[in-house]
Amino acid sequence: MDHYLPAASPQLLRAINTAALAHRGHVRKGTDIPYVSHVFAVMHLVSQVTDDEDVLIAALFHDILEDVPEAYSAEQMATDFGDHVVDLVRGVTKDDTLTDWQERSEAYLAHLRSADEGSVLVSVADKLHNLLSIHADLDVIGDELWGRFNSPVERQVWWYRSVYEVAREKLPNNALLDELGRQVERLERRTA
Questions:
Q1: What are 172-186's pLDDT values in tens digits?
Q2: Which of 57, 139, 162, 174 has the largest count of CB atoms under 10 Å?
Q3: Do the record's keywords include Oxidoreductase (predicted)?
Q4: What would the CATH number be for the domain defined by 10-191?
Q5: pTM to 2 decimals?
């Protein structure tokens, strides 16, 4: 029996294009891969566990306010897609006034503890895609990979484990979170 897959709404299609334009010219850290591939992957992962359009749009926009606010402001995002989308994106946006990596990471975790469930879901998908990419790159280039990051491998492991632990409090019985947990454990084994 064939399953019916509804077409993406005009709003979601507009969000896909907006995200692509906001991140145009950007690439994934240490690669030539267009950054928008990450954005689309995060939305795809989120779509496996929810059909809430605001959450799907927030997944597409999750790095805009942190990385390219000059390309697409929170005000424009609110006008185009609503305050709820902006709130969800802000729920996963690191505080750029904090310059220390550890301090910024701890502030993110504290914020995530009180964030909307939709924001937590986007964070889980974001970290899951990052970890899947890390594992793929480790398979190809090995420990040379860690030179791409602003913190040592031990801090990266701590970061992914910490996000998982916070999310576990907020999203019980979630398949995406379960997969993040498996990938965190895999990272811990690979870096032990």
A1: 889 999 999 999 999
A2: 57
A3: no
A4: 1.10.3210.10
A5: 0.93
